[in-house]
């Protein structure tokens, strides 16, 4: 095709969220020979006013891409309370219905003393167990603050705004390059396109030729999201719970709280269930009354949290069916982040997967000089990243059920729930990305030989 093209292909990145911005930063650093333009449909970079959490495995990968990304994360996270040993979440039963029919509103756990477990009495709101986190820098940040820090690492002139991609076609000049078509009628020609355009990705539809797995499907869950100033949260809930990560569990719902913005805000995500989502919008405004209705049976703590939420929005939670591929070669288009594998948030790792994608991809691209090199890089990226990121989508959806007393073979059995919870993050967190990096380099070398 174009392996004899003398100049290096120019790169288009579609979308400036966490995936698109980190990819831009990575390529600027590792591939100075590849000219880059980032196209964003909005009029400026921006993230929503909500929290996002990263675990040490993902923050280490940020460092591997560029230490300044980990520094940016740390700057947004510095004042958060650090627990020793580190905790992911303290899990509490907060649904009164779990205690219906039990004597004095108490549940007895650890009856099986042969199993070495001490007998414990649990009341509404009590800690059932703690899910440990791994040691190292991690935790919650305010999305907009983190994005602002990433934007500072992108020089002027790289990004173009109000550029909504509508189509990609193959150039007619026999270069094999991609022609990008934007909603404003303009076009641009590039050697390779990186689709970082999120869950409703246009590039995904193009790569998958509108295969049925293109569109995200409703997961059965939606979430209210909001922030509470930490001082207010502490006034309502006391010193303990708001400053560390809490998971309040119950029937068909659960509520997460964790500190963000240096511990100055408490981030709240309150999940609930519904069989179908019919509104064409996935984010809708709601009223405090409707929201409280969903938590009628919950503990005073949870109801107090919900009452304090400012301007609650509802987010319908969708995820992608597994795509058979993350790239196409005529022209060269590769999917990154949510565009490739949008997940529910129940294992807190969707954005972490974006970071991992970017590390693997940018290292491979640093060895690319021709379109043919790009093809081998895409194939290696796809081979290494697709299984892991699609496993997250699947297990995350299952986790949503687990936290809401719907887990297969688990239901509302708290001890079975604990056993499942304690192991389910291991493969995400105890992951050595350098092994996959070696594997990807090996695949790329084979391809080129
Ligand atoms: C409730 C909730 C909580 C979450 N919590 C966590 C968490 O704690 N930890 C975690 O790791 N992950 C979490 N996630 C997942 C995480 O938010 C996503 O995986 C991540 O933000 C995806 O980033 P992205 O850059 O791929 O996509 P996006 O952030 O969606 O960015 C896409 C960008 O592309 C632009 N765009 C879209 N279409 C076009 C087009 N046609 N042309 C040009 N530009 C376009 C958009 O304007 C946007 O800027 C959570 C998700 C949800 C819903
Ligand atoms: C958090 O703290 C860091 C370092 O102390 C500071 O640079 C940053 O601006 C703070 N951010 C917020 C949102 O308070």
From TrEMBL:
Keywords: FAD, Flavoprotein, Membrane, Oxidoreductase, Transmembrane, Transmembrane helix. One of its GO terms (molecular function) is FAD binding. GO terms for biological process: secondary metabolite biosynthetic process. Residues 327-395 form the FAD-binding domain. The chain crosses the membrane at residues 12-28. PANTHER family: FAD-BINDING DOMAIN-CONTAINING PROTEIN-RELATED (PTHR46720:SF3), HYDROXYLASE, PUTATIVE (AFU_ORTHOLOGUE AFUA_3G01460)-RELATED (PTHR46720). This is Salicylate 1-hydroxylase-like protein. It comes from Clathrospora elynae.
């Amino acid at each position: 095709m174009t392996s004899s093209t003398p100049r290096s292909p120019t790169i288009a990145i579609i979308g400036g969220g966490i995936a698109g911005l980190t990819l831009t930063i990575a390529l600027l650093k590792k591939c100075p020979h590849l000219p880059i333009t980032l196209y964003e449909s909005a009029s400026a970079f921006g993230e929503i006013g909500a929290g996002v959490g990263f675990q040490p495995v993902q923050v280490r990968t940020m460092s591997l891409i560029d230490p300044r990304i980990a520094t940016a994360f740390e700057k947004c996270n510095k004042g958060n309370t650090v627990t020793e040993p580190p905790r992911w979440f303290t899990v509490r039963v907060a649904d009164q219905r779990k205690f219906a029919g039990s004597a004095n509103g108490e549940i007895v756990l650890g009856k099986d003393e042969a199993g070495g477990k001490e007998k414990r009495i649990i009341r509404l709101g009590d800690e059932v167990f703690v899910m440990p986190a791994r040691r190292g820098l991690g935790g919650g940040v305010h999305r907009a603050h983190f994005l602002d820090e990433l934007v500072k690492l992108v020089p002027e002139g790289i990004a173009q705004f109000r550029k909504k991609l509508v189509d990609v076609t193959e150039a007619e000049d026999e270069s094999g390059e991609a022609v990008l078509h934007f909603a404003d009628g303009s076009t641009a020609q590039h050697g390779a396109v990186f689709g970082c355009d999120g869950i409703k990705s246009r590039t995904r539809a193009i790569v998958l030729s509108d295969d049925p797995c293109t569109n995200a499907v409703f997961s059965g869950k939606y979430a209210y999201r909001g922030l509470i100033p930490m001082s207010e949260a502490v006034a309502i809930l006391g010193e303990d719970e708001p400053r560390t990560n809490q998971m309040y569990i119950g029937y068909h719902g659960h509520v997460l709280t964790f500190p963000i913005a240096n511990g100055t805000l408490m981030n709240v995500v309150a999940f609930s269930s519904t069989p179908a989502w019919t509104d064409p919008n996935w984010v809708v405004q709601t009223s405090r009354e409707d929201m409280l209705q969903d938590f009628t049976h919950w503990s005073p703590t949870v109801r107090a949290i919900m009452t304090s939420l400012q301007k609650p929005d509802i987010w319908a939670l969708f995820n992608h069916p597994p795509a058979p591929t993350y790239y196409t070669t005529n022209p060269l288009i590769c999917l990154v982040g949510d565009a490739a594998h949008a997940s529910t948030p129940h294992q807190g790792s969707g954005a972490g997967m974006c970071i991992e994608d970017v590390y693997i991809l940018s290292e491979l691209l640093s060895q690319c000089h021709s379109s043919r090199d790009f093809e081998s890089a895409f194939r290696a990226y796809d081979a290494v990243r697709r299984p892991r990121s699609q496993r997250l989508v699947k297990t995350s959806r299952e986790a949503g059920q687990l936290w809401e007393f719907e887990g297969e073979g688990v239901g509302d059995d708290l001890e079975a729930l604990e056993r499942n919870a304690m192991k389910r993050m291991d493969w995400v967190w105890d992951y050595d990305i350098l092994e996959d990096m070696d594997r990807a380099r090996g695949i790329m070398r084979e391809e080129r030989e």
